[in-house]
Amino acid sequence: MRKTKLFTIAIFIIGGIVGLVFALGIAQFMYVTGDDKFCVACHIMEPMRDAYKNDIHGGNNKVGFKAECVSCHLPHDNIVKYTYQKAVNGVVEGAIMLFGHPEKFDWEARRKESKRYVYDSGCMHCHGDVKNVIADNMKAFLAHRDYFAKNIDKTCVECHEHVGHKNLGFHLRDKFGDLNTTK
């Protein structure tokens, strides 16, 4: 009877340790694959990274705060959506890099579809305080009042068109030449 009890306790302890190591491994993987260093590993992302570094969101601000790529380009509604979209993005973008010709994409045209790959939940994850009316943010609240009241059907990037990547058009032309300006 005593051996059974010890065995059960040992199973719980070992299972807990294995679960903890597994969870920490997944958390570390999610962390290291979420910043610009990882994203620019696909060389096609260099213009996006360069424009990001010049932007407020890329650390070009008074305090040096940086939003990571996944802060804007993954949904923050819940962990299931976040993980699913991260996996989909990884597979699709990896396949494009291996089998496609991303250097021939019309990146300027893709910028116009930014609401497909920039999530309002990501914006609100950092800027959610705009929703709470206080004296310090009255001006920002009033500018977004219709959005919060759902009186308009626009996403954040439909109003804040060039947010996150300052002068991206310049960096795209620098990398790809006129390919992106003729279309």
UniProtKB/TrEMBL annotation:
Positions of transmembrane segments: 7-31
Binding site for a menaquinol: K86
Annotated heme 4 binding sites: C156, C159, H160
InterPro entries: Cytochrome_c-type_ET, Multihaem_cyt_sf, NapC/NirT/NrfH, NapC/NirT_cyt_c_N, NapC/NirT_cytc_sf
Superkingdom assignment: Bacteria
Cofactor(s) recorded in Swiss-Prot or TrEMBL: heme
GO biological process, one term: anaerobic respiration
Family annotation (Gene3D superfamilies): Di-heme elbow motif domain
Binding site for heme 1: C39, C42, M45, E93
GO molecular function: electron transfer activity; heme binding; metal ion binding
Chain residues that bind heme 3: C123, C126, H127
Protein localization: Cell membrane
Primary location group: membrane
Cofactor note text: Binds 4 heme groups per subunit.
GO cellular component: plasma membrane
Name of the protein this chain belongs to: Cytochrome c-type protein
